[in-house]
Amino acid sequence: MADPKVLEAQRWVNSTYGSVPGYERCAETGVTGWAVMFSLTRALQHELGITALSDSFGPTTLAKLAERGDVSPGYTKPNIVRIAKYGLFCKGYSAGDTSNGGYDNGLYEAVRDLKSNIGFTSDGYIQPKIFKAILNMDAYVLLSGGRVEVRDVQRWLNATYITKSTFFVIPCDGHFTRDVQIALMRAIQYQIGIPEDQATGHFGPGTQNGLRNNTVRPGSPAAWVRLFSAACVFNGGVGGVFAAFTSGWDAALGDFVNRFQDFSALTRTGIGDYATWAQLLVSTGDPDRPASASDTRFHISVPRARALKAAGYEVVGRYLDEDPWSTLDKEIQPGELDAIFAGGLRVFPISQYAADTVDDFTWSNGYDHALRAHDRAVGYGFNRGTVIYFAVDYDATGEQIASHVIPYFQGIQAGLGTRGKRYVAGVYGSRNVCAQVSDQAFARYSFVSGMSWGFSGNLGFPLPANWSYNQIKEFDFDAGGDVFALDRDVRRGNDPGVGPENIGGSGSPVDDYLRYVDDLYATALAYGGDANRRVMEYLRYPTYNGAWSGWETLIGDVDQAWIDYASTHGPARVESYVDPSLGITVNVDHFGATANAVYLKGNGGRGDFGGWAGDLATFYGEWRSHGEEYASGYAFCADRLAKINVLSSFPLNDLVEDVDGYLIGSAVRAGARIDQAIRAHLVDGHRTRFWQFYAGRYGGTVTGVRDAAWNALGGSTADAQLATLTEAAIRRTGGVCLLPSQLPSAKLEPFLQGYAETIERLSHG
Amino acid sequence: MGVPGTARRWAVAASCAPLAAFLVYAWGAIHLYTPDIRETCELEHGGWDRAHGQVTYFPLSRRCNAYQDLVPAYVNPTVVVLLVAAALFAGLAVAARRNPRSPKEQS
Predict the structure, then answer these.
(1) pLDDT-derived band of residue B50, with 50, 70 and 90 as boundaries?
(2) Phi, psi of A332 (to 5 degrees)
(3) What beta strand segments (E) does A519-652 contain?
(4) Beta strands of A238-320 (E only): which ranges?
(5) Element (H or E) spanning A405, and its range?
(6) φ and ψ at A458, to 5 degrees?
(7) Which residues of chain A approach chain B closer than 8 Å at the C-beta?
């Protein structure tokens, strides 16, 4: 939407400086952006007497400004004052009267507000670095998805280090980014004692040595604890636990460090040693730390495999295939898998065709690459369920990830789907590529190219939650005089890779679960009564049963005599299985509870609450408890709903359990046998599960989803007990918050729309 | 003869303490409720261990794992302290009634 003051700024700067050599006009749209900031910057440079105009607010501009002193009352260059005012308007600050170049009270208040947001408790005068902060698009208020704790550290960095010659104002938007990481690194370098002009923000030898000499532990100096805890805050949560910014080491920080070290596969020391510092600051971490995985484009013979094994490696990544014109000869050779296994190693397959420029990444290419990778993997005999890592081997920017890489992976998922989802897609790339692809295209595991520490996709991004391998160093490996290039990869252990037992089999990862359901059904038949219902009860017990979970009220408790009988006479309990489509872990009890609710109560009302509607209620509460970070419910859904990598009350596996529970519950309610319905679903039906759910429950329209979501959250009050359960679920995560029916429509609608569009998007497969 | 002032104050305290204990207990009991204990524990209490999760009423508890409980840690000690205080206050009230300290209270 056009802002009249922004439009005035664009018109003024174009009309005033349009004829100045080197000035570049901005579009007069009334919409703020880099273009108007660049035009204002060039205008400022002209006013300062600079002739070589540039978009960059660099050292010359700063020096020339400094020569004239702070912009304050009595400033003698009215146009510079007007540039400042227009810059502030373009940043969203009301900066007084722009009809003249006088320094008025409006400008003073605007600058004081901006400086307060930046972290200063100060006056309204404009120092050169503040002017630089005005003429850019950095935000100094919390943006959607930003964290208050991160914003507070950003402010602290600004307030503490602004006097350093090489430190400039950083955003205070609550987001950890490349610029923020470099600022933190500079702060560390100042603390180490590196001269200001040599504090580049890079993780060089001087910084590394400085950190080796400054392990942070209980009793460490406050300055070091602050910087270390700041790095921990920027890293984000580990398993739902976040660090706090502190000047004194406490038990909470120690607990976070332990969790971070476990998550990152570092040795657990509980203190801020060098390996932990490095892991917090750069994507390589300490490249010389122990690593038990590797990958290479070179063939692995038995002697090479044995040498790798002797050197401590357990698994090696190898390429499935290559383009016909490739001269690298990097693909797995006949007999090579046997050689790898004979040497005592396991293997993880990588698929990389042309994948090193943005134009290589299209939906169609992804589809084609998936078919070729599938065919090659079948040719090598890899079993169903094997994870194949599809590579993004260049520094994709955030925009390119959205415009090209995500569609490419959607093509991959579609391609694997047409081949029956025999294989599961993983992703190789920078941290940001891995995180985005996992969140939006459901790559199961991330093989992170951490050794490319300078990638824009690695700087300012934490290790993705689903990382499995982290590539940290390339070097020449010497296998008894046979030298070849090898990448060292830290191995987390969640993807075990492929061993000889995973080759040549015809089974599926869900076979054990299907046998379990068959046996359970047979046990239920022997027990008597409604065998379908008994199976569902056993699956959901004990988590989704009893008064304190609300399930007694919702659909009634299980038949305890049957539970006792099945525990004695039935098969050993299976608690989870790996989904054949997505490779994620499906919790059997949640699925069973949903199916039971739908089976007993049908579509709508209690049947819904037992599945997706109950999760949507807790997710709504979670949104309201994050109201400061997420003004928009739509943005909250976009960031947190149905994700693999994000800890949320409604992650992807919850949705899969809800959807499968709905489909199986409905099928059984329509007369199917539960064991047969589950088998049919997990052998074939899973490929179209989201489309079946979208069409079956919501009528296949976004409006249908939106309306059902509204009814579930409070639009329907026909069932008072259900309304109470819904409110209790919302308050469990939301605490004392406004209920959906109390929220203004303009506020609630984007949340409902976010849910509806997520379901609709998933239905496309 | 009326009830001495000191005894009355102890008696009031003795009657208020159980009420406070009940309110704290009820506050703790609210925390037992969750429609999905796995999700609640993973989001708010560091993880879910299926071996736990059972409800006990004294002490009030529903554990997520060996280390974390849905019931805030202060609830059970506070309830115990309040109940002990109630007994103590009741005893003091009886003692004050039997042995009034001031002549005014003796009258």
Answers:
(1) confident
(2) -60, 135
(3) 576-578, 585-587
(4) 293-295, 315-319
(5) none
(6) -105, -35
(7) 239-241, 542-544, 546, 548-551, 575, 587, 589-590, 614-615, 618, 622, 647-649, 654, 725, 728-729, 732-733
Which amino acid is located at A530 in the chain? Answer: D
Contacts of B46 in chain A (CB under 8 A): 239-241
Alpha carbon distances (Å) from B9 to A135, A472, B3, B86, B90: 69, 72, 10, 12, 10
Residues sharing a CB contact under 8 Å with residue A737, sequence separation 6 or more, in sequence order? A621, A624, A625, A627, A730, A731
Task: Fill in the DSSP letter of residue A529.
Answer: S
Paired strand residues for A319:
A331, A350
pLDDT band at A417 (very low <50, low <70, confident <90, very high): confident
How many whole angstroms separate alpha carbon A671 and alpha carbon A532? Answer: 10
Token pair 């042995």 is found at B99
| Cis, peptide link before residue B59, omega less than 30° from 0 | yes
| pLDDT tens string B54-98 | 899 999 999 998 888 999 999 999 999 999 999 999 999 998 888
- Give pLDDT tens digits for A293-337: 999 999 999 999 999 999 999 999 999 998 888 888 899 999 999
Angle ∠(A117,A123,A124) on CA atoms, nearest 5: 80
Q: Residue A49: helix, strand or coil by DSSP?
A: coil
Query: If you write DSSP's letter for every residue of A675-706 in order, what string do you get?
Result: HHHHHHHHHTGGGGHHHHHHHHHHTT-HHHHH
Identify all chain B residues contacting A732, using CB atoms and an 8 Å cutoff. 33-35, 40
- Tell me the chain A residues in contact with residue B32 when contact means C-beta distances shorter than 8 Å: 548
Number of helices (H), then strands (E), belonging to chain A: the values are: 32, 10
Written as one letter, the residue type at A493 is G
Give the Cα separation of A410 and A426 in Å (integer): 12
DSSP assignment of A18-44, as one string?
Answer: TTSTT------SS--SHHHHHHHHHHH
Interface contact A732-B40, CB threshold 8 A? yes
Strands A293-295 and A482-491: antiparallel
Q: What is the dihedral of CA A286, A291, A297, A298, to 10 degrees?
A: 120
pLDDT per residue as tens digits for the range A677-700: 999 999 999 999 999 999 999 999
Q: Give contacts of B62 with chain A, Cβ < 8 Å.
A: 548
pLDDT in tens, A432-466: 999 999 999 999 999 999 998 888 899 889 999 99
The DSSP element (H or E) to which A389 belongs, if any, is strand A387-391
Q: Are strands A387-391 and A424-429 parallel, antiparallel or unpaired?
A: parallel
Chains A–B, number of C-beta pairs less than 8 Å apart: 56
Whether the complex's predicted ipTM is more than 0.90 is answered with no
B60 phi/psi in degrees, rounded to 5: -70, 120
Whether the CB-CB separation of A569 and A541 falls below 8 Å is answered with no
pLDDT of B1 over the 80 cut: no
Q: How confident is the model at residue B106 (pLDDT cuts 50, 70, 90)?
A: low
ω before A542 within 30° of 0 (cis)? yes
Q: How far apart are CA A318 and CA A349, in angstroms?
A: 5
User: Whole-angstrom Cα distance, residue A209 to residue A191?
Assistant: 13
Q: How many CA atoms lie within 13 A of A535 on its CB side?
A: 31
pTM for the structure as a whole? 0.83
> Would the pLDDT of B103 be above 80?
no
Residue in B with minimal Cα distance to A735:
B31
Q: What token pair was written down for B4?
A: 């001495």
Separation CA A103–CA A97 (nearest Å): 9
Cα separation, A724 vs A671, in Å, equals 32
3-state secondary structure A463-511: CCCCEEEEEEEEEEEEECCEEEEEEEEEECCCCCCECHHHECCCCCCCH
